[in-house]
């Protein structure tokens, strides 16, 4: 039996990944989100607003009852205000940091502690972004949180190597995916986001990856982590 714990399962990559995992036998998925979009009997929904630190701290992971593999997928994320610094709302900055960095770091910390004595193969997949690896005007907080998530992932993996565990931690940029976030980006006025036309062109030319394709690639990473030696990955190179 394999266990998948996935954030942001109400839509997009998170929902597609949950559905892909549940297509294999002997799999249980715990989905963490504000709303539930799955009716699979092996799907367990944990209603949580990742903006609220108290709610994140109240999440209880399933007890290991002999799982062969336990996978944490920190998928949930938000773009936040698409504006220059100095024009953003402080509340938006705080919420973006909470969802993109604080919540996944808290969950990673809890995961590593809770399953420390488990004999199961343990895998963590943090969904990062190419935006965390280059500066994009008007995306400062989004870029910063994704860059920080990369570093948290790399550091945590080094710590697990020092401990001699069988835990693998990855930080994966999924590419430009056809999700609600892309719709949000395209709705921004050029006065606030100088690169918005590029995203209109990507949609127009059909160059956005499907959530199903991204989910399949992520599932293959979870299935064969030994094929990947690096922590920081880009799904477009799989």
Percent of residues in helices comes to 25-40%
Helical stretch count?
Answer: 7
Corresponding CATH superfamily: NAD(P)-binding Rossmann-like Domain
Global morphology: globular
Task: Explain what this protein looks like in three dimensions.
- With 238 residues, the chain is α/β, with parallel strands linked by helices.
- The protein is 39% helix and 17% strand.
- The protein has one domain (2-175, 210-237): NAD(P)-binding Rossmann-like Domain (Rossmann fold), CATH 3.40.50.
- It has seven helices and seven strands.
- Strands 3-2-1-4-5-6-7 form a seven-stranded parallel β-sheet, sandwiched between helices.
- The longest helix is centred in the middle third of the chain and has 25 residues, at 90-114.
- The mean pLDDT is 97.
What would a concise description of this structure say?
This protein has 238 residues and is an alpha/beta fold. It contains seven helices and seven strands; from the N terminus they run βαββαβαβαβαααβ.
Features:
single chain, 238 residues, alpha/beta, Rossmann fold, seven-stranded parallel β-sheet, 7 helices, 7 strands, sepiapterin reductase (NADP+) activity, Sc_DH/Rdtase_CS, oxidoreductase
Topology:
Layout: E1 2-7, H1 12-21, E2 27-33, E3 43-47, H2 53-57, E4 69-74, H3 90-114, E5 121-127, H4 140-163, E6 167-173, H5 180-186, H6 196-204, H7 211-223, E7 232-234
Parallel strand pairs: 1-2, 1-4, 2-3, 4-5, 5-6, 6-7
Helix pairs in contact: 1-7, 3-4
């Amino acid at each position: 039996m394999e266990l998948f714990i996935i954030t942001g399962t109400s839509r997009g990559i998170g929902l597609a990944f949950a559905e892909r995992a549940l297509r294999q036998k002997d799999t249980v998925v715990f989905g963490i989100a504000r709303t539930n979009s799955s009716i699979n009997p092996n799907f367990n929904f944990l209603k949580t607003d990742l903006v609220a630190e108290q709610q994140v701290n109240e999440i209880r992971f399933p007890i290991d009852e002999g799982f062969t593999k336990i996978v944490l997928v920190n998928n949930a994320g938000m773009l936040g205000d698409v504006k220059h610094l100095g024009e953003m709302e402080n509340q938006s900055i705080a919420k973006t940091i909470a969802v993109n960095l604080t919540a996944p770091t808290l969950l990673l910390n809890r995961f590593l502690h809770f399953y420390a004595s488990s004999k199961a193969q343990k895998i963590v997949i943090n969904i990062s972004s190419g935006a965390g690896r280059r500066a994009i005007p008007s995306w400062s907080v989004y870029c910063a949180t994704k860059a920080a998530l990369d570093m948290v992932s790399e550091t945590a993996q080094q710590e697990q190597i020092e401990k001699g565990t069988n835990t693998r931690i990855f930080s994966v940029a999924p590419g430009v995916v056809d999700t609600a976030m892309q719709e949000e980006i395209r709705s921004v006025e050029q006065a606030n986001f100088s690169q918005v036309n590029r995203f209109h062109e990507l949609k127009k030319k059909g160059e956005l990856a499907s959530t199903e394709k991204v989910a399949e690639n992520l599932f293959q990473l979870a299935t064969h982590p030994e094929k990947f030696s690096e922590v920081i990955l880009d799904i477009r190179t799989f």
